[in-house]
Specification:
It is a single chain. The chain is of the alpha/beta class. The chain has 13 helices and 28 strands. Among the domains are: 108 residues; 97 residues, no CATH class. Strands 1, 2, 3, 4, 11, 12, 23, 24, 25, 26 and 27 form an 11-stranded mixed beta sheet that branches. Strands 13, 14, 15, 18, 21, 22 and 28 form a 7-stranded mixed beta sheet that branches. It has a 4-stranded parallel beta sheet with strand order 6-5-9-10, with helices on both faces. α2 packs across α5 and α8 packs across α10. The chain starts with a strand and ends in a 9-residue tail after the last strand.
């Protein structure tokens, strides 16, 4: 029997499922606490919990994880060096050991200030001992990437640290957001490398020899070599997988999907089996990125969210702690409340009783009821607005979801579906995801030479005729997208190319600004239809 192994590593649990490839039926499932100090331990326990049979021929392994998202939200990215070429972006940037060097490329892709290589060498020597990865960002690198690439080459020669350039992650303008994206990506490289190595070691120990993929934030797959270089593509990986898994398990094409995990509650709307992408890229915590992702709403409420007493009343802090039922000493959690009421029996209830007594002088039952009411109020505020805007079923998944969302149904009458295998829906979604690759490019007027310039992958080429330039870009993006999808292991590929002319209206006249071209290569087996929309981001 041909199968797919799906593994989801969250902040609290690591889940594993074995899915029959043809029918998408869940054959086996297992859960194990995530072991943050050594991820291989928790992953190994989950896989062993499946009791795999030699007859279970595993065709591929697919991963989803919230590690990248949680690292950004919790400010736990690894120390990073940032080399800025030319002027600084306007706005706050993630913490980094920063240096500014001379150099400049203008919006037409021409070098107007040469790169000061001596400054780059000096900056690298000063920063390298303090960091685990480098980020390189120049304002117009998406028009001409030569200076970014020169800085990358110097860093590679100076030290053995990973380096990522802004143009390698995004072809969009928006210097600040692209720099944020680049810094965050660099800070995640060591974290995702540790995770991938843990997976590889565990699979080898289990004698599993199959290609390994990871779910990206847009719900599609990427190979591990891609994720090693661009780990930021895995932000919102878990929520994207949860949407795919929830829809499949519920048998719905419409729904407000709510995934209540250990750290956060993530929600998204799917209408007519269409997953809408965030209009300007994923936002995680305080940071706006230029990474494609599902349109996800995230709030700081999970099974491990800390509850403390403030002026005698239980209060959610948004901080993730070890639940009291598992030996935690930093307050209560929603998981603890379920142990107290008897709705869940995974760990030690007596530890919860002691923790409740330590927080309140009130009647313990009343204190727990008040805490539960606050949790339900948070759910109502975060989720019910989505339901009111789109009255489709609420599909609740995640280990703590069943009890809380059944209570929401009882209180409000909302249609709530808690599907079979709800507690491992992320791993199910991971196993069902498929490959998709997107390549974007631009054609802009070249007033100086009375022609047009095509910008593809940080390179530019001049044309006299607009149609010729657009045709070149369409062919180039189509070929690049197809090659990228094939490199990710997609067996059968279809490619669509979208063109969007951006014009500025001046009275009754229109002035041509640019043509944006996007090629989308999909595996024909992709079950989740992605909505194709015009890119409304301005130049």
């Amino acid at each position: 029997m041909q199968t797919v192994l799906g593994i989801d590593t969250g902040g609290t649990y690591t889940d594993a499922v074995l899915l029959e490839q043809k029918t998408k039926k869940v054959l086996k499932k297992a859960k194990s606490p995530t072991t943050r100090d050594n991820l291989a331990v928790g992953i190994g326990k989950s896989i062993r919990g499946l009791c795999l049979d030699p007859a279970d021929t595993i065709e591929k392994v697919v991963l989803s994880t919230t590690l990248a998202t949680n690292a950004i939200v919790e400010g736990e990215g690894r120390p990073t060096g940032l080399i800025i070429i030319g002027e600084l972006p306007k706005g706050e940037l993630p913490d980094a050991h920063r240096a500014q060097v001379k150099g400049k490329v203008n919006i037409k892709g021409k070098e107007v200030i040469p790169l000061d290589t001596a400054q780059v060498i000096e900056a690298c020597a000063a920063i390298a001992p303090q960091v685990q990865a480098f980020a390189v960002s120049g304002m117009m690198s998406v028009r001409n990437a030569s200076q970014e690439l020169a800085v990358k080459d110097i860093i590679k020669k100076q030290c053995a640290l990973p380096v990522v350039c802004g143009h390698e992650l995004s072809s969009q303008l928006g210097f600040h957001d692209r720099t944020v994206t680049t810094v965050l990506n660099a800070s995640l490289i060591p974290i995702l490398e540790d995770f991938i190595r843990a997976v590889e070691v565990t699979l080898a120990d289990q004698s599993i020899d199959a290609p390994v993929y990871m779910v990206k934030g847009d719900g599609n797959l990427a190979g591990l070599s891609f994720i090693r270089e661009k780990p930021i593509e895995s932000i919102l990986s878990g929520p994207a997988a949860s949407i795919i898994g929830a829809l499949s398990l519920a048998g719905c094409g419409d729904g407000v999907v709510v995934d209540m995990g250990g750290t956060t509650t993530d929600s998204g709307i799917v209408l007519d089996n269409t997953l809408t992408l965030a209009p300007i890229g994923a936002r995680v915590g305080d940071w706006q990125t230029q990474i494609d992702s599902a349109q996800i709403n995230t709030c700081g409420l999970g099974g491990d969210t800390q509850i403390i007493a403030v002026d005698g009343h239980p209060t959610l802090t948004g901080r993730r702690v070890l639940p009291a039922c598992r030996g935690g000493r930093d307050g209560l959690t929603p998981t603890d409340l379920l142990h107290y009421t008897g709705d869940f029996e995974g760990w030690d209830r007596e530890l919860v009783v002691d923790a409740v007594d330590a927080q309140t002088d009130k009647a313990p039952d009343a204190y727990v009821d008040e805490a539960a009411a606050q949790i339900l109020e948070t759910i109502r505020a975060e989720v019910l607005s989505l339901y009111e805007a789109h009255p489709v079923p609420i599909i609740a998944i995640g280990a703590p979801a069943k009890t809380w969302y059944e209570k929401i149904h009882e209180e409000t009458g909302c249609t709530v579906i808690v599907p079979e295998h709800y507690e491992v829906a992320n791993a199910v979604g991971a196993a069902m995801a498929a490959v998709e690759e997107r390549v974007t490019a631009l054609v802009r007027p070249d007033e100086e030479n009375d022609g047009y310039v095509a910008h593809v992958a940080g390179q530019c080429r001049s044309f006299k005729d607009k149609a010729e330039a657009v045709d070149f870009v369409k062919q180039e993006t189509e070929a690049r997208a197809a090659a990228a999808a094939k490199a990710q292991g997609a067996p059968d590929i279809s490619v669509q190319v979208f063109c969007d002319d951006i014009v500025e209206k001046i009275g009754w006249r229109e002035r041509y600004i640019e043509t944006r071209v996007k090629a989308v290569a999909k595996a024909t087996t992709l079950k989740l239809k992605m909505q194709e929309e015009k890119d409304e981001r301005r130049p």
